[in-house]
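Q: Structure for this?
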Amino acid sequence: MSDLSATIQDVVSNNLCTGCGTCVGICPAGALEIIETADGRLVPDIQIVRCTACGLCRKTCSQLRVSAELMGVLDSAPAGPIGAACTTTAKNIVFSTAGQSGGATMGILSWAMESGLVDRALVVSVDSNNPLQPRAMLVDNTQNLQQCQGSQYCPVALNVVLREVLDTAGRIACVGLPCHMHSLSLAMENIEAIREKIVLRVGLFCSGTMTFGGRDFLVKSSGVQPGRVQKFAYRDRRWKGWPGDVSVMDDHKQSYYIPRTARMAAKDFFTPIYCRLCPDKMNMTVDISVGDAYGLDTDGVLGGAALLIRTDVGQRVVEQAVRDGYLICQNVSESAVLAGQKSQPAWDRSRDFAAVWQQTGHVLPAFWSETSLPQIISISAGKAARRLLRRSLSWQCGSARRRHVRLPQFLMIGIWRVKLAWNMIQSIVHRRRGNHQSA
Ligand SMILES: Cc1cc2nc3c(=O)[nH]c(=O)nc-3n(C[C@H](O)[C@H](O)[C@H](O)COP(=O)(O)OP(=O)(O)OC[C@H]3O[C@@H](n4cnc5c(N)ncnc54)[C@H](O)[C@@H]3O)c2cc1C
Ligand code: SF4
Ligand code: SF4
Ligand code: SF4
């Protein structure tokens, strides 16, 4: 038995745990399990009697350490190293239709599997017994990839599957968010078997998730009882095309849609602290980064993806996938992709938040404490707090101002926001009473 200080307990108690699942996946003693908190985050639960105090979990947690890979690309932050940029869709019509942004990710994975580059892919699907619960899994054939399409804007303990990776032979491609990839990078640095098996990393752009409280709020807003949900999508393109509204299908196959604007308004409320402190929207350390083609020519027309190709491996994979008819690509300038993603403002916002977080006596994640502290303390807490306040006020009034609405419409928006807030409060009370589902 050991004491908690050898483990990642402080990451959890400092509210910094992203629920990436890496510590759980690599713990040699099986002392960690992922659980869901009352407010709908994922964190590791420690069975201290099993812990041998080996310290491996602390070495692989990206909230405690910055990987050599991430250190190596800091000069090019917040974009990261870029060899080429393109807009892309999968050529396979099934992938391109069901994909969140044209199925580019699945086009890449299916090429990697069918060409023999990898044997398996580490991806996210939903639990077969619960359509509201995402689940990370290793997939070993391209037919099963389709069920893993679509973005789950909620916590996913992707790297818990490293347990299986360690027990499975063969090469693996991974798809994940920046927080997954930073801890994976540390796991690759520290554990040879993982380093040898992960041969391709595809990273999604990420501007934050909602807690499961946010998901429950959206389901509640649809009017469908959680037990009667057959299918749930954060962004369903079938209703009004790309980028897609929230859809909830009940057990009579009736679908209910909630406008994307409502999801975006709720997102701010349900964003966990660790996302507000997150420095990497663009997934800087992977082979290929993928996101929506916001602000690019395909915007709203094809609903394709934007790719940033970062490494030689990434370059070879994309070239060969295009040559073999898995992807359709069109070159674009990298600055257009970065402008569409608003990568610099996102970085500035996180840095401002980190400044306020630190100056209000909280512990910073390793990225800010080990790399950019001088930058952080150069902004005064007062200035940063004012900027954050301004942003949250503009969120309150923004949609009304942008659309130049008249007074009656403004009042309607006000009523809608009050209703939204009331639904949020009810969702939280419901969860606090212990009616949330466990991970
Ligand atoms: C939480 C989150 C935030 C995002 N934020 C942005 C953003 O700000 N800007 C932007 O342009 N794009 C963002 N994306 C990426 C975008 O939504 C699409 O996933 C991306 O463009 C790929 O589309 P696709 O059609 O190629 O993928 P698909 O073919 O639909 O495949 C989806 C892939 O995403 C993986 N996946 C789904 N949910 C998760 C998850 N929670 N964690 C890890 N992997 C997951 C699946 O395993 C699958 O491999 C975000 C995605 C997520 C999950
Ligand atoms: S490795 Fe991931 S899941 Fe584990 S404590 Fe760190 S952030 Fe949380
Ligand atoms: S990785 Fe080592 S220190 Fe961490 S919980 Fe497991 S046994 Fe304990
Ligand atoms: S914003 Fe950062 S911490 Fe939050 S889900 Fe995305 S990558 Fe993870």
